[in-house]
Amino acid sequence: MNSLMNRFFMFFRRFKKLVKLIDKETKMKTVIKSVLGALLISSLIILLPTLILINMFIYTKLTLLLSILLVILIMSWGFLYYFFYYKLLKNYHPKLEEYNTLLPQLVESSFVALFFMFLGIIIISIVL
Asked: What are the extents of the domains in the chain?
């Protein structure tokens, strides 16, 4: 049990260290550009499947299944957003290519996906 906790704390120390290195290299202007660009790209990618799923709600027998698929689609939006965010940051700052941005990308997108999952479960349990 103790070694599991040590690995967990080492993992988050590495995560914090990488985030500090990335924050040191970036500027506010490029971060804002990356955020807005990632929001736009990921929203456009998720828009079409979301609209198709929402239009399928006319089939009342599939409401629960479609609701679960919609929550999964919204959870995947967080992963897409952070993928494009770090990809755009690397384009603006070539020095970030040296750092492994996969770890912060996965950790932050997992937190967002967990938030959307809990929110989706609460909404589905209230509505259905």
From this structure: 2-127
